[in-house]
Amino acid sequence: MPHLAFDLSVTPSPGAKVRFTNAVVRYFSHIMDTGTVHIAVSLRCPSPQDMCSAAPIRCTGPPSSTRTSAAGAVPSEMQSE
Questions:
Q1: Tens digits of residue pLDDT in 45-61
Q2: Residue 74's pLDDT is what?
Q3: Whose CA is closest to 1, among 54, 55, 37?
């Protein structure tokens, strides 16, 4: 069963949620050339009180320090301890 999940930054009206969900199901079934009864859709609409932002990540080493890996040079900000 396909489960299509959408994280929204707004909380739409109940009618808008139904219209959006129906449009997603129709479009997905068209693209996948399948029926609609097995498609699940989740809309995650957090309230503004649930939203928070994290403090920016600070680099502990000098920006020019790098380590070489199989993929090439890795900036110090991305290096694991």
A1: 887 776 666 666 555 55
A2: 46
A3: 37
CA angle 78, 80, 81 (to 5 degrees): 135
Query: What do you get for the CA distance between the two ends of the chain, in Å?
Result: 40
Residue 43 amino acid letter:
L
Q: How far apart are the C-alpha atoms of 27 and 33, rounded to whole Å?
A: 10
Type of residue numbered 64: S
The SS3 call for residue 32 is helix
Structural domains counted in the chain: 1
Q: For residue 23, what are its two tokens?
A: 């449009």
CATH number, domain containing residue 40: 3.30.429.10
